[in-house]
Design goal:
There is one protein chain. Helix content is 70%, strand content 8%. With 642 residues, it is of the alpha+beta class. The chain folds into 2 domains: 4-303, Tetratricopeptide repeat domain (Serine Threonine Protein Phosphatase 5, Tetratricopeptide repeat); 450-639, Histidine kinase-like ATPase, C-terminal domain (Heat Shock Protein 90), CATH 3.30.565.10. The chain has a 5-stranded mixed sheet, covered by helices on one side. A two-stranded antiparallel sheet has the order 1-2. Helix 8 (166-182) runs parallel beside helix 10 (206-222) and helix 10 runs antiparallel to helix 11. The longest helix has 53 residues, at 397-449. The radius of gyration is 33 Å and the shape is elongated.
């Protein structure tokens, strides 16, 4: 059976299946074969055979040109839908999903795979269903949900065993091996690996033999059985060489590199990994590029070649984030942390430490949760065994008492485990609720900052300069407006920004408001002599809601020139920010309440400060009061980080 392979865990190789039982031709890898298939596709008149050719081109080009594979898979889906070809449509959904996996787009891949599973279930196609279940299990494996991955792979294995398809049974076993590997259950991994190897030998399937040889090399490498790892790695290269699979040869070179690194043969390790990396870049497999960069970075780190390790680790980090794989991101951060530490660049090292530790702990928490589930299963099994033993020894009171004590201890352990799990779930829910409140507050704050009246009136004022043939002034204000909008969007996502940025957007904002209000007010920004703006960080746009209040409420319908003063002053270890206006003040008797403007400044600010002050010893203090003569004073006292 023909299949395409890809590499997703730290060392283990997974089989992803393109349902070749639908194929009319042998697996095409060369560019000439692909072009021949495309010619046949365009010439074919029979709808069912045409859909088959779409699948052939998609799977045949996946190891050569991912963009081409994606194009023909998606075109095939549209064609099969229009022609109402269900079996072929399920196959093409599977093909599109595997292409997405190769691209590192796991979420769309899951959606395509679910569509394939639904179709194969409806038409009772067990072979197609088995392969789709296996591929979906591979996706869950990649995103770290190993329990779900194992369940799907075992369902795939059971279905293939019912079909007595030795080749597909071996493929499912290879994937189960991958899950046991990442769970560090190496005994089971070797058991299923040797069984798969035997089946592949029976059917004389070279690509399967190459795949399982790689997997066995990976397990032996993890066990530090380096001679066995070397043996199976060389077998990997030989088998992939016989089927002219450059990517598979690169996989073999990469694992040989890891073997040589453990043997401290660094020159050979570099030679092998540098032979693999260009192949992965050409093919476009993001996961394998990440794995290879990880291996290269570790070699440099072992040799204390820290300066050479840093750019490799940064590229590794970029790819890890692009394919949304937290384990890769964690390992890349660790490489950067240790490299900068090795160079004595402790500030940079600490920056990566602060990013590495939370991510490491997050992954560890998920692994602990999975371990608790496995422990719960073990406890349930032991409970049944103990109950059976108690029945056999019912006549012996002492033994019965002993079994009862064990039973109570088991219940207590399970209860503690469940309480721990429930507590963790509640903790996560509280974090999610807090995060949701933060996002809602940011959105509400952004809506107040992006007041539609302000935007409309600003653009109208700019338009008037254009009509008055004053392009210089129009351009000036249009540039200020664009800068302001960009600053609002950028700053709304940050918890703290530099005072320099705050002053820059504030000046832009006030200039545009002057334009909007036709210069009916003046403003002054006072900065204390001892203040160095670039060295001070504050929450962004604290002042904006109250400046808007002054303009919308305080200066509305006044008969004199409005004056707005904003002060930034150091008071001990805090920055004091004061906004003063000479408007109508806080009196509800004299203050107009225009129906088209509702102030959200105070409640939003209080909610925002509640979140900002959470878990902080020094709090941001907010107050608002009427001035002696007229107007309002708003004051923030912001503790400075020391």
């Amino acid at each position: 059976m023909n299949r395409l392979n890809t590499h997703f865990a730290v060392l283990i190789l997974f089989a992803l299946v393109f349902l070749p039982w639908l194929s009319l031709h042998s697996f095409a890898q060369g560019q000439e074969d692909i072009e021949r298939l495309i010619t046949q596709l365009h010439a074919e008149k029979n709808p069912s055979k045409k859909a088959i050719f779409y699948n052939e081109v998609a799977r045949g080009s996946a190891s050569i040109d991912l963009a081409m594979a994606e194009r023909y898979a998606l075109e095939g889906i549209v064609f099969a839908k229009n022609e109402k070809l269900k079996k072929e449509l399920g196959t093409l959904y599977n093909a599109a999903a595997v292409v997405r996996i190769f691209q590192g787009n796991n979420i769309p891949a899951l959606a395509y795979m679910d569509s394939a599973i639904t179709i194969f279930t409806e038409i009772d196609d067990k072979s197609g269903l088995a392969n789709s279940l296996g591929n979906k299990g591979s996706i869950y494996y990649m995103i770290g949900n190993y329990s779900q991955a194992l369940e799907l792979q075992l369902r795939c294995l059971k279905t293939n065993e019912a079909l007595n398809d030795k080749s597909e049974i071996a493929t499912a076993l290879a994937n189960v091996l991958g899950i046991y590997y990442v769970q560090k259950d190496f005994k089971r991994a070797l058991d299923v690996g040797y069984r798969a190897l035997s089946l592949y030998n029976e059917v004389n399937e070279l690509d399967g033999l190459a795949l399982i040889s790689y997997n066995l090399a990976s397990v032996h490498l993890e066990l530090n059985a380096l001679d066995s790892a070397y043996f199976y790695a060389n077998n990997t290269i030989n088998y992939f060489g016989k089927i002219n699979n450059a990517e598979g040869i690169a996989d073999g070179n990469r694992i040989l590199s890891d073997v040589f690194r453990k043997q401290k043969k660094f020159d050979l390790a570099l030679e092998k990994i540098n032979a693999a990396i260009p192949v992965y870049k050409e093919i476009g497999g993001m996961h394998k590029q990440a794995e290879a960069l990880s291996s290269l970075g570790m070699i440099y780190l072992d040799q204390k070649r820290y300066a050479e390790c840093i750019p490799v680790a940064k590229e590794y980090l970029r790819i890890a984030r692009e394919i949304q794989t937290p384990q890769f991101e964690r390992d890349a951060l660790k490489l950067l942390m240790e490299s900068h530490q090795g160079l004595g660049q402790y500030k940079e090292a600490m920056m990566y430490v602060n990013r590495y530790i939370p991510l490491r702990d997050s992954i560890l928490n998920e692994e602990n949760m999975r371990a608790q589930e496995e422990l719960k299963t073990i406890f349930e099994t032991e409970k049944k065994e103990q109950e059976n033993e108690a029945l056999k020894l019912e006549g012996q009171l002492l033994e019965a008492d002993l079994q009862q004590q064990k039973y109570y201890i088991l219940i207590l352990i399970i209860a503690i485990g469940l309480i721990t799990a429930v507590g963790f779930i509640l903790f996560r829910q509280n974090k999610i609720v807090a995060k949701t409140r933060t996002v809602e507050l940011e959105q509400r704050l952004l809506r107040t900052q992006m007041n539609p009246h302000f935007i409309f009136n600003s653009l109208t004022a700019i338009q008037s300069f254009v009509y008055k043939s004053d392009p210089r002034q129009a351009g000036k204000f249009l540039s200020s407006f664009a800068t302001l909008v960009r600053a609002i969007l950028d700053n709304s996502r940050e918890e703290y920004i530099s005072l320099t940025k705050e002053l820059k957007w504030l000046a832009n904002y006030l200039e545009l408001q002057k334009l909007r209000f036709d210069n009916r007010f003046e403003y002054t920004i006072h900065i204390g002599d001892e203040i160095i703006p670039e060295n001070i960080e504050i929450p962004p746009m604290l002042t904006q809601p109250f400046i808007e209040n002054a303009l919308e409420h305080g200066f509305r319908n006044i008969s004199y020139l409005g004056q707005l003063d904003i002060y930034f002053e150091l008071k001990g270890d805090s920055l004091e920010i004061t906004i003063k206006d000479n408007g109508i003040g806080l009196s509800t008797e004299t203050q107009p309440s225009p129906s088209n403007h509702v102030s959200h400044a105070i409640p939003i600010t209080k909610e925002r400060l509640l979140l900002l002050n959470k878990n902080k010893r020094e709090k941001i203090i907010f107050s608002m009061e009427s001035n002696d003569r007229q107007g309002v004073s708003v004051r923030f006292t912001v503790p400075l980080e020391t």
